[in-house]
Amino acid sequence: MNSERVITFSQALNESLVRAMSRDKNIVLLGEEISFGGGRYYVTRELAEKFGKERVIDTPLIEDMVVGVGIGMALGGLHPIVELMYGTFLSLAIDDIYRAATWNFRYPVSKSIPIVIRVASGAYDGRGPEFGANFMSWFQHIPGLKIIIPSNPGDAKGLLNAAIESRSPILFFEDRVLYPISGKVSAEDYVVPIGKSKIIISGSDVTLISCGYMTHLALRAAEMLSKENISIEILDLRTLVPLDMEAIMMSAEKTGQVAIIEQGIMRGGIGAEIGSRIVEKNKKITVKRIAAPNIPPAPLAWELYTLPSAETISVEVKKFLLKNNHKND
């Protein structure tokens, strides 16, 4: 019997939270406006009614305080899930996140702090530098912190299930533009393993590595390029830390050419980390990075000129392949 239904990204996350809170009375939610009408993105819809405002707690708009309180709750025996409304303001909470992630390095007899920090992140909705910056690459430097970035409703539910069950510090990025996107999600109980990427489509000419909303742009670019007989393979990372290097290298060595797509700024970005690790393992593989320039996110009218799009990905991949073909002539 097929238990799949088509639901939105927001609904998939909501189902995961209902599952977790029904199983464990120590799980509490903290966040800005999460009990009002289901929160800004409807992920926490009806949770205050189901589980009470003692477990679905509205907080002030003070990100470092919210994460700090969550850490205190975790140390006191609870299992907090924190929601931050805008990823740009992660910068205010980075000290608390660092301390939570490195806690058992500094206090080896202690267990890891069980806290999941959900972050509504990213651009493509015209909010400019105050709300559209992507700081994902900053946090890959922190030891002990796992970083998850789902691209579709099915993975969103399964990865959040896994994140909560891991009982360790998790940073869970949710691209804001994905919340209304629909997809097939199983009604059955399941987890998507942390640290396992997924081949979305198979191809032979070049591998596109992406995560979150970038996977959707990669798919559109692949459709464009297929009309020019360019065969694209797409690898959806799903988890940035730990990084699934086994799957990355398998795909990279299959095609011999890799383009890494990210929403954040190219300088010091996730593409630099992934690309360098690929080349360290196999110098014959050529790597291209497609990312934002070294400027803050622009308002809506200018986003298409500064952020990756399906069109720019398609153009950059063709230039990349053309350059490599000339080298091999």
Structural descriptors:
329 residues; Rossmann fold; single chain; alpha/beta; 5-stranded mixed beta sheet; 2 domains; 7-stranded mixed beta sheet; 13 helices
Structure, explained:
By secondary structure, the chain is an alpha/beta fold. The chain has two domains: 4-186, Rossmann fold; 198-328, Rossmann fold (3-Layer(aba) Sandwich). It has 13 helices and 14 strands. It has helices at 9-23, 47-51, 63-75, 90-101, 103-106, 128-131, 136-139, 153-166, 213-226, 245-255, 270-281, 300-306, 310-328; strands at residues 4-8, 27-31, 56-58, 79-84, 116-121, 146-148, 170-175, 182-186, 198-201, 206-210, 232-236, 239-241, 257-265, 286-292. Strands 3-2-4-5-7-6-12 form a seven-stranded mixed beta sheet, sandwiched between helices. It has a five-stranded mixed beta sheet with strand order 9-11-10-13-14, sandwiched between helices. Helix 11 links the parallel strand 13 and strand 14. Helix 1 (9-23) runs parallel beside helix 8, helix 3 (63-75) runs parallel beside helix 4 (90-101) and helix 9 (213-226) packs across helix 13. The protein starts with a strand and ends with a helix.
